[in-house]
Amino acid sequence: MTITITAFEKSPDRGRGLARDMRVRWALEEAGEPYEVRLVTFKTMREPAHMALQPFGQIPTYEEGDLALFESGAIVLHIAERHQGLLPGDAGARARAIAWMFAALNTIEPPIFDRALATILERDQPWYEHRLNALEATIRKRLTDLSRRLGDADWLDGAFSAGDLLMVTVLLRLKGSHLLAEFPTLSAYVARGEARPAYQRAFAAQLAVFTAASGG
Ligand code: GTB
User: Fold this and answer.
1) Residue 216 pLDDT > 80, yes or no?
2) pLDDT score, position 200
3) pLDDT band for position 215 (50/70/90)?
4) How far is the CA of 76 from the centre of ligand 1 (A)?
5) Which domains does the chain have, with CATH numbers?
6) Residue located nearest, by CA, to atom 15 of ligand 1
7) C-alpha 214 to ligand 1 mean position (Å)
């Protein structure tokens, strides 16, 4: 059955792979599942057809036959549960990998995403420096603990899993920042994720969309 996901026709990140369709593309590439992409604009995302798929008018969505899903974490879990290579077979290891998926989205991503938003939307506020410092302190605390837990391992809990896939996509938003550079262990972890052939294919696919939309 054909899998169709949605993505920005012209991503505001200019093809840097930071929009949340990237994690779904990567999971599908790891799974070896072909997929189609329906491109949407900020306007069409608010139209009834898209709102029926995604109650908050966001991307990504996932359609496969009668199944329509939203929330990138739920979509990645759905893909991981149906294919080899993204969740371990052992029940305990599988549960731990899922815990890392939640950790990426619930514990690590919020302050990183809030920092990114603040740098765009709150830069002119008188309290901007204070807010930025507070967010960066939280991020630093989380990265300290994450880096300690990862130690000198390649991945968070044994073999590469959907937990690593989500964690790497979340950390990638800090790429090039002093925050990630402060943690060489995590920088190397992110680089390992980026080096995976499935990541490379997913990145190239989303970049091609941006390039085409920009007339390149
Ligand atoms: N919790 C949802 C999920 O994980 O699927 C969140 C989805 C979400 O935030 N989608 C964003 C969206 O559709 C795109 S990815 N926003 C439109 C809206 O809310 O109206 C977030 C994003 C946006 C922009 C950049 N960027 O410019 O770098 C990066 C990531």
Assistant:
1) no
2) 98
3) confident
4) 15
5) 3-85+198-213 (3.40.30.10), 91-196 (1.20.1050.10)
6) 19
7) 20
Residue pLDDT, tens place only, 156-202: 999 999 999 999 999 999 999 999 999 999 999 999 999 999 999 99
For ligand 1, the distance from its centroid to the CA atom of residue 58, given in whole angstroms, is 6
Ligand 1 atom at shortest distance from the alpha carbon of 71: 5
What are the start-end ranges of the E strands in 48-157?
Answer: 61-64, 67-70
Distance CA 54, CA 62 (A): 9
Q: Mapping DSSP to helix (H, G, I), strand (E, B) and coil, where does residue 199 land?
A: helix
Given a cut of 80, whether residue 79 has pLDDT beyond it is yes
Q: Give the list of residues 6+ apart from residue 109 with CB closer than 8 angstroms, or none.
A: 170
Considering the chain, what is the average pLDDT of its residues?
A: 97
What SS3 class is residue 48? helix
Distance in angstroms (rounded) separating the CA atoms of residues 205 and 23: 12
In Å, what is the CA distance from 202 to each residue of 31, 66, 135, 198? 12, 25, 30, 6
